[in-house]
Amino acid sequence: MAKERMLQFVTVNREMPEKRPAELRSQDFHEIYRDFAARKAVEQSSRCSQCGVPYCQAHCPLHNNIPDWLRMTALGRLDEAYAISQATNTFPEICGRICPQDRLCEGNCVIEQSGHGTVTIGSVEKYITDTAWENGWVKPTKPEVERTESIGIIGAGPGGLSAADMLRRKGFQVTVYDRYDRAGGLLTYGIPGFKLEKPVVMRRVEQLEASGVHFVMNCKVGEDISFDAIRGQHDAVIIATGVYKMRAVGGPGVGQTGIVQALDYLTASNRKSFGDEVEAFDNGDLNATGKRVVVIGGGDTAMDCVRTAIRQGAVSVKCLYRRDKANMPGSQRETQNAEEEGVEFVWLSAPKGFTGNGAVEGVVVQKMRLGAPDASGRQSPEVIEGADYVEPADLVITALGFEPEELPTLWGVPDLAVTRWGTIKADFRTHQTALPGVFAVGDIVRGASLVVWAIRDGREAADSVEAYLAQPASVAAE
């Protein structure tokens, strides 16, 4: 019976959940994809070929057992599908929404390679877990045995929260410290609601609180509490701060008002969605309403900015990127969504400087061409001399990527070893740092990366912490 329900990819075409029309979705911050109906989720899951070597699973950082939960969905056994999904992923409903499936699981689907169109894995993953929430299948963790050991986690983003979840399941006492007033990190304040509505994040935080995780918010390590104090209060510490320092743009006129960083802009918008008072938004500094907006960058953060500006009522939104569309680092799916919503992409363009007299009036744009490949194999952009022009702008948002903060200096911990890029040095298997009992996960180790990798790191680090605390004290101290 089960076999007959699967392998339907020859007769059933790939179909994504319906996307809300661009002219409607660009007016609000709600998610743009409608939910799968039960019938459609079953139908699309049945397209899975159940291949012997599931490349979708192999190319998922969490190695989610995708074929099995697709099969359970096709059979209508959603409670079992959720159990399988939750076994390897702390936040499947979040990954289903924001993972770049086109580059990971779906991009490596066997039937996609044979020309039949990939299984809509991400949409089904979202459907399974949303259904689990609706039916009350998602419960707070109740460990079989409470342990006395205490773990401190610095950072309430996806890496820290996934570690907290797994450690509570093991019975450890867990305290999470974070600089913001709400947990979630970039899930809360960096990613816009049209990709990830905030109640989805908040209900996971509430579940962790109900499971016994203690949160200490508005707490800046190095200012409100020292790193040494946290180490002294806990048997082990996990650093999961992420990378929040944005790369600066250069050139004449860069210090003028109206030139802002992407994270400041996105945080202000997300805070408004919570109903917070945000002075920099209300006075127009971080608000695109009625402005000509230019976003500099080509990654997913740049896509979040241009699509947010559209929703805020910008007069025009243009995105400058120094390479062409084929070499853009951001998700092609997000680029398409942005184009549908009215964003204009100016390919092979880079900022040279800015015009204005204290307040930005335009971006001096250098036209580029692609030359020889760089060290990564991508073609390096080269300036076309004499082709500069000025792009009018009232608001310029720079989205050039993230760098790690200088944690050893900020925290007064010179023995915390870092790489030449400023990321923390940690064993790639155990996530242990140079300091005994201190582990590090996510972007602060990898550099700016994907949420799914941070989740994996957090889960692995929880196992390593357990193993570390099981050692004799003399061995653990080495």
TrEMBL record:
UniProt keywords, alphabetically: 4Fe-4S, Iron, Iron-sulfur, Metal-binding, Oxidoreductase
Residue ranges occupied by any FAD/NAD(P)-binding domain in the UniProt entry: 152-458
A GO molecular-function descriptor: oxidoreductase activity
Record InterPro entries: DPD_II, FAD/NAD-bd_sf, FAD/NAD-binding_dom, GltD-like, Helical_ferredxn
Residue span(s) of domain Dihydroprymidine dehydrogenase: 26-136
Protein name: Dihydropyrimidine dehydrogenase subunit A
Encoding gene (name): gltD
